[in-house]
Amino acid sequence: MSFHAELPRSLVSGLPRLIGQRVKLCGFVASIRDQKRMRFIVLRDPSGTVQLVHSKDDGGLSATLDDLTLESAVKVTGVVAAAPSVKLGGLEIALDGVEISGLAQSPLPIAEGSGLEKWIDHRQVSLRYPAQQLVFEVQTTLEQAMRTFWQDHGFREIHSPKLMGTFSESGAEVFSVKYFGTTAYLAQSPQFYKQMAVAGGLERVFEIGPAFRAEPSFTARHETEFTSIDMEVGWIDDHHDLMALEERWLVHAISAVAEAHGDDIRRLFGVEVVPPTLPFPKVTFEEARDLLRKLGHVLPKDDDLDSDGERLLAEYMAGETKHEFLFLTDYPASGRAFYHMRQEDRPHLTKGFDLLWHGLEVTTGAQREHRHERLLAQAAERGYELEALADYLDFFRFGCPPHGGMGIGLARLLMRLLSTASIREVTLLSRTPKRLRP
To answer: Which tens digit of pLDDT belongs to each residue from 277-334?
Structure first.
């Protein structure tokens, strides 16, 4: 074996510019094919795959390669050669050095056709497949584009605590933990603290961070721990300002993904990423309920849509508007958080909205009630213990601008971008009521 550690690492994607040169590559063994006199190995790194060739006349190298197993981590050296007949990029590497850095046990616990649960059980292997690599490339581009938009529009980033002294949404869906002789709660959202930031004069804030929901849901769109994207904006007129902001933000982010990864998404997921047009269509909750009745679907609750209703409504509206997105606005107050602002002329309705993408709720947002006395009244109306909400209510005692915001599920955006069947296909490690490992 003749392995030269001083040789700088090259990536597969850069090999077309290095034909005739000796290179070092690092990656995983994707396949091994033995013939009588030759051995062919496919190496995979984050940028692509390449064929390695080795003549078995090289006894020293053969001894090392005889021990090689699929998915072993290796360093290799060799000369890049043009090979038009090779499907993997029209080139190959003539091996002259191999170092097995991490030998994989055989047989492997999964293959590309294994079920999703087995993929999650053995995430250190399933993450290596090209489609899964692309998920996190897309996620990175998506977040970078979001941050660019926020920076261009005067937002500041915050990092709020995830241990709280009270619940931030509903006490029925909260995880409690021991905390030095008392009880703390894992944050269901950064809601209270992003509002505090606006009350503190930051005016426009965002956060990307974990959120926790103790919700016993076993659907393909729910996780007990997920990454929440949150925005809060001061000095708005109403919730329509927030919807206008979100749709421009989404067009910017989806356009960045389409430009950077459109070809790869089409090849690996069979999806054409097309940036949406502005404005997004909107229907009120009352209009949605009436439309669903005409479509033969009666909502099980008077103040919210069920998942079937969201899907049916989205399908109908997509046919009418030719648009993938749909805003649902003006929800009944009985089905929304106590801090959502009520409409002046119709106090039974809120200035709130949801955003559906192909029938999946990806956003909940609203203008918040910023007036202290009204917040007290709305909390008391729900029967909440005001003492437990004292810290939150204090945020509004010393002057606060009219404001509102939204929460967006990162994995749900990715799920729709890549048209996957489950949120777990676009999540690094799933957390559900029945899964706490690995």
So the answer is: 999 999 999 999 999 999 999 898 888 999 999 999 999 999 999 999 999 999 999 9
Return d(Cα 207, Cα 211) in angstroms, integer. 11
Question: Do residues 63 and 195 both lie within one domain?
Answer: no
Nearest to 366 by CA among 232, 247, 171, 249: 232
| Domain region containing 82 | 12-102
Per-residue pLDDT at 112: 76
Cα Rg of the chain (Å, integer)? 27
The answer to whether 273 and 262 have CB atoms below 8 angstroms apart is yes
Are 22 and 130 in the same domain?
no
Q: Is the dihedral of CA 304, 306, 307, 312 positive or negative?
A: negative
What CATH number did the domain enclosing 145 receive?
3.30.930.10
162's tokens: 């995830």
The reply to whether 187 and 269 lie within a common domain is: yes
Classify burial at 318, counting beta carbons within 10 Å of its beta carbon; exposed 0-12, middle 13-18, buried 19 or more. Answer: middle
Q: How many helices (H) and strands (E) does the chain have?
A: 11, 16
Residue 55 and residue 164 in one domain: no
Is residue 97 located within the same domain as residue 128? Answer: no
The pLDDT score that the predictor gives to residue 1 is 47
CB 294 within 8 A of CB 337: no
Q: Are 429 and 120 in contact (CB under 8 A)?
A: yes
Alpha-carbon distance values, 105 to 31, 65, 71, 130 (Å): 14, 15, 9, 21
> 351 φ, ψ to 5°?
-95, 60
Distance separating alpha carbons of residues 379 and 371, to the nearest angstrom? 12
Q: pTM of the full predicted structure?
A: 0.92
End-to-end CA separation in angstroms for the chain: 37
